User: What shape does this take?
Amino acid sequence: MKLNEIISENRPTLSFEIFPPKNSGPYESIQPAIAKIAELVPSYMSVTYGAGGGTSSGTVSIAVDIQKAYHVPVLAHLSCINSTREGVHTQLDALREAGIENVLALRGDLAPETKTQKNWHYHYASELVREIREYGGFCVGGACYPEGHTESSTQMEDIAHLKEKVDAGCDFLTTQMFFDNNIYYNYVYKLREAGIQIPVVAGIMPVTNLNQIRRIMALSGTVLPQRFRYILDRFGENSAAMKQAGIAYATEQIIDLFANGVPAVHVYSMNNPSVAQKIQENLSEILK
Ligand code: FAD
Assistant: This one.
């Protein structure tokens, strides 16, 4: 099923993210986690491409397995920065052949060696979006950044480039994580002002340990509200308490988003079924 059909149903939905095993580890190492998350019957599951410590090699096969074994719609991430046109087409052929209908088109992060590389096939995600559109048959998503992408000098510049990406053929956007919903609401207002009218799926990260949030802060420059800092200060060293508080904080964010009419929330569940389960349980009546 195409995700734009799910999102346009306009009712509260939750989706969860999976990343392939780290260091090209065996699929079996994450299969039980995938099974437990799929059993929650999320609106869809996304599979990252070389992000979150996972590799890119397993994305297609994991996506195919989820859709075949559990009948959960899948969003396969695809990044282009280190790819050739032929490489992208090989991935698209494999996805199409397996009946995967949704792709999140990404540029990927610039590694130091990529920056000095010559003859790039792709420079920005908008080029990949256009190419997938020309290839045909996929519902195409793009990434967006409510606090601005780290390479953009201003948010308005970032939104102008996002408009180019959307015009290239995105059906929906998914946000980078944020910990203050007002940042999302203000951002979506600015997107609408800029003429971007497609759905903006809200990305929520349940923070369950201190190291995880340190890594996020270093990579994305995400702002932590004072309220959330107090939680980290008080519970950061107690893993069970931090997990409970992190799940409660994310649940509260999601309830507020649903209450304000945001239909689709994507949870960065980091291959952690217990976190996904708990959040889903907390929202059981709301999701009915
Ligand atoms: P782009 O949309 O190309 O934007 C990158 C930067 O270039 C932005 O600053 C933008 O403003 C700027 N820009 C765009 N067009 C132009 C132009 N014409 N001229 C000048 N500047 C321009 N990474 C992975 O490797 N694998 C994943 O699976 C993955 N999943 C993600 C999922 C989500 C929801 C999000 C939010 C991010 C994900 N990422 C993933 C991270 C992403 O690859 C990085 O953030 C990357 O640095 C940017 O990718 P993008 O697709 O947003 O790039």
Summary: The chain has a mean pLDDT of 93. The pocket of flavin-adenine dinucleotide is lined by residues 48-51, 77, 79, 106-109, 124-126, 143, 149, 151-152, 158, 161, 165, 174, 176, 203 (CB under 6 Å). Strands lie at 13-18, 45-47, 74-79, 102-106, 139-144, 172-175, 200-204, 264-267. Residues 239-259 form the longest helix (21 residues).
